[in-house]
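tool_call predict_complex ligand=flavin-adenine dinucleotide
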Amino acid sequence: MIKKYTDFDLSARNTFRMKVRCALYVEVTEEVGFPALDWAALPQPILVLGGGSNLLFTADYPGTVLHLAIRTAPQLHEEKPGEVLVTVGAGVVFDDFCAWAAGEGLWGPENLSLIPGECGASAVQNIGAYGVEVKDILADIRAWDRLESRFVHIAPASCAYGYRRSNFKTAWKGRYIITAVTYRLSRDPRPVLDYGGVRKALEEKGVSTYPEISGHPRPDKREGPAAEGSGRGRSEAEAISGYVLTPQLLRETIIGIRRAKLPDPAEVGSAGSFFCNPVISREHFHRIEAIARADNGPDYRVPHYDTPDGIKVPAAWMIDQCGFKGKRLGGAQVYQNQPLVIVNESGSATPEDILGLERQVIAAVSAKYAIILRPEVEHI
Ligand SMILES: Cc1cc2nc3c(=O)[nH]c(=O)nc-3n(C[C@H](O)[C@H](O)[C@H](O)COP(=O)(O)OP(=O)(O)OC[C@H]3O[C@@H](n4cnc5c(N)ncnc54)[C@H](O)[C@@H]3O)c2cc1C
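tool_result ok
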């Protein structure tokens, strides 16, 4: 089914809550709607919208905003040892899928819990958090090919996935409209725990995270608080562990960590991380270390991660070091708990407020560290 609305208010369709309108808003609820769409007759250009959680509308949109509201619930359609294939409609909220998977005891998306947005966009964005990227669990992408006017299946291997990157955002921009995504999950435990304090948070809850028992319920262990005397005959470390790791427990832990740091889109407008974390050369990193030690003392350690492409330095750290944490411009603010995020703090920030703050951050980081921050948020 296709619904059309002219001069449509988009303020509830973007998590930044920009008060903008589009000439035409089209909602497609079933795949069969595509062949019937007269693309040439739609106001141009055409923007495919998911949950609007990675976009900044910088002005009214002159063309058509097309929302995929295909909400086919997760369908488990193939299971073999070590692999469970599940297909989900593009318009399903990604976190609803994560909740479903955890409820079924299926491993795969738990570290991506609470990322806003829809399943279709997950494959565009290669969403990632806490050491997992969606490319790690993608099996197939079904899409309407606007160039050839037909449905196609796209193999994730052909999507050139990288850090928040894919062909959907570059070479294929505007060509494919994703209608369904198939994820490869597993009943075998495969927890990823060594990012962003996940293991520590689990251990504080009394969850066993030791590799030899992680996720493997032992006969004398059960999910939930430890049975009395369950520590007998084990190492001290195991004895203090009260819970066995499950996808559900890992999901709840990730949600707890995220809630402490990130703004809830239901309460304050934002599009999550506004900037990408830059990857730089070792020489450049040493120059940054020297600046940081001059600022913070000779023993100061700059947070960083080694990657195959170079050294990744958290943009949040740089923004903080430049004194931007909590800084306001009009109704916009660099988020106090996580300076990588720009928020619509007043609820009535304009695109100009956000863009102005963005420019100030980029200029300050560039002047101090000779790094041009690249926005993660797509500017429309
Ligand atoms: C508070 C907050 C926290 C966040 N945390 C994270 C995080 O931890 N990790 C992370 O990776 N991201 C994070 N994000 C960013 C955002 O949630 C993701 O990028 C998400 O995938 C965007 O999904 P969406 O449905 O809202 O897509 P939109 O923002 O609507 O669209 C994003 C892009 O995908 C395209 N698109 C959307 N649907 C389709 C489709 N069906 N077919 C073809 N193209 C499509 C759009 O045209 C656009 O180019 C966060 C955002 C917020 C607000």
